[in-house]
Structure formats: C-alpha cells, structure tokens
Design goal:
Elements lengths: L1 H9 L3 E5 L5 H10 L3 E5 L3 H9 L3 E2 L3 H6 L3 E4 L4 H9 L4 H4 L5 E4 L5 H14 L2 E4 L2 E2 L1 H7 L2 E7 L1 H14 E8 L3 H29 L4 H8 L7 H11 L8 H18 L4 H15 L11 H8 L6
Parallel strand pairs: 1-2, 1-4, 2-3, 4-5, 5-6, 8-9
Antiparallel strand pairs: 6-8, 7-8
C-alpha cells in the first residue's frame, strides 16, 4: 500500500509550478534535477525562459498549468497573489482535474489556506499548505525547512516532492497548520534579528567593536540566522535573501492570528511597526536584517559602514 502511495508522487506524475521568484525558481530547478516532469508559469518572462532551457514546459496561465498537471505547486508572495492564481479568471481551479493535488508553498494567511481547501474539497482536489523557511540559499541547496498542513495521507504521498526541495520536512497537522507554524517561525526569526541588532548597537555605543559582539552572540543556538546574515550586516549589505516587506506581511499574519486566539504578541507588534517604518523609508526591498538600520538611526550611532 505504501509503495502505491509513493507512486502517486514519483512515477509519471506531472508537476506544475507557478511562481518562479527568488524561492520558486531554484525550487523548480531542484524538482527537475530530481527527475520530475515540470510545467511552469510566471508573470515575469525571464525565469520562465531559464526553466524552459532546463527542460520545463512553459504555459501561459495558471489554468493551463493545472490542466497539464497531476500536482500543482504555487510559490507566490502573499495571500492575494495566491487567491488570484488559484481562484481568479484563468486560475488553477478553472483547470485542475478531480483527484489532482494542489500544494501551496507560499507563506500566506491560514484563513486563506482554509478558503482554498473549501474550494478544493468541492472540486475533489487534494490540498496541502506547505510554507518554507531557509531563504534563497536553502532553496538553491534544497535544504529548506518545510512545514506541511493537510491530510496525513496526502502528505505521505507528496513526501518525495518535498524531499527534492527541502531537508527538514515537518508534518504539522490539518489544513492551515503549516501556515500557523510558519507564522510562529517568523516570530522567532524576527525576534532573533531584532535582539542581535540591539546587541550590536549597544556594544558599538559602549565602545566594543561590533565584530567582537557578533563573534560572541553568533556562537549561541538562537543565533544561527547570523551565520548567513551577520557578515552581510557588518558590511551594510541588505541585498534581499528575504525582503523586509514580505516579513512585515508575515508578522501581520502572526499578529492577526494572535488577535483571533486572544494571544498578546507585544514584541512581534513592535518589530512589525519597525518593519513598517522601513517600508515607509523606502527600505521594503531590503533584506529583513536591515532592521538594524532603524535602531541605528534612533540611537544615532553607526554599527555598519
């Protein structure tokens, strides 16, 4: 029985991938490397043509991708983008076949995930929400953490797909639970970056070289994010691995969830406001580690050069 299930995702299944941005493009490439037949679509032509050279078939709408695929994956920036791709004119649910599987790997509101699941159920389509963590580097190296919500049997069937794109794959529970866990993850990631910024600014103003402070705090378990971003922070390099405007959106999701369940998230609220300030200052395209620029201006001290 288990072999039969795995055949669903590994033998002859055609995969459609919609959204070929910073994360989606390398994830698609890794699926091709793993031997999957891929059909792709994106509103931006460049990455589509790049995937075409790698062997992917190109379609001109989300509907066309769904018509040609047994498994459809979306990797898009936000809830409205996913709703448009799935539910809008020329969208996935206009073309997807009964018995197919829809995996949304975007980071969106769990409310939107449940809305999509209701439509999928009516159409006889299996659905998973499977947001990822690990940034562009993790997408390229296929070492992403993937948090999956939906029916366990569908998760089991699609495990080979997740294994082609990630390393730490966690089944979180029913529909929407992957998005809830991702929101929790984003709270922690944001908190670590903010705490590191405070430490670097305090150390600098107190006369301790920021390199020394970074060396000490980066040795702790909670500071793993600094392995990737710390050296770039010191250089003032905020080229996005994960954009501030998207993290701002993610924290909005977390705050909304906290409000819904009566859970106060004061630090998350503060960081959300700080990222809002970055957006207002034209820094929404910065990497989220650019949080340090807000504290620097408030403290009137330069940590980065």
């Amino acid at each position: 029985m288990q072999t039969s299930k795995l055949r669903y995702a590994t033998m002859g299944s055609k995969i459609g991938f919609i959204g070929l941005g910073i994360m989606g493009k390398p994830m698609s490439k890794n699926l091709i490397k793993a031997g999957h037949e891929l059909t792709v679509y994106d509103v931006v032509d460049g990455p589509v043509r790049e995937l075409e050279k790698d062997g992917a078939k190109v379609m001109h709408s989300s509907k066309e991708v769904a018509e040609k695929s047994d498994i459809v994956i979306t990797m898009l920036p936000d809830s409205p983008d996913v709703e448009k791709a799935a539910l809008g004119p020329g969208g996935i649910f206009e073309g997807i076949k009964k018995g197919s599987t829809y995996i949304d790997m975007s980071t969106i509101s769990p409310v939107t995930s449940k809305k999509l699941a209701e439509v999928a159920e009516k159409k006889g389509v299996r659905i998973l929400d499977a947001p990822v963590s690990g940034g562009e580097k993790g997408a390229i190296e296929a070492t992403l953490t993937i948090m999956v919500g939906g029916a366990k049997e569908v998760f089991d069937d699609c495990l080979p797909i997740f294994q082609a794109t990630g390393k730490n794959i966690v089944y979180c529970g029913g529909v929407g639970s992957g998005q809830v866990v991702k929101a929790c993850n984003q709270i922690l990631v944001a908190g670590v970056l903010e705490s590191a910024s405070e430490a670097l600014v305090l150390g600098t103003k107190a006369g301790v070289p920021p390199e020394t402070v970074l060396k000490v705090i980066a040795g702790g378990y909670a500071m793993r994010v600094l392995d990737a971003r710390g050296p770039l922070i010191l250089k003032g390099d905020f080229k996005p691995g994960f954009k501030t405007k998207l993290h701002y959106k993610d924290l909005g999701i977390a705050l909304a969830a906290g409000s819904e369940y009566g859970v106060p998230l004061p630090v998350t609220g503060i960081i959300h406001e700080m990222m809002g300030a970055m957006k207002a200052w034209g820094r929404g395209e910065y990497d989220h580690s650019g949080l340090i620029t807000v504290l620097q201006e408030l403290a009137k001290v330069e940590t980065i050069k």
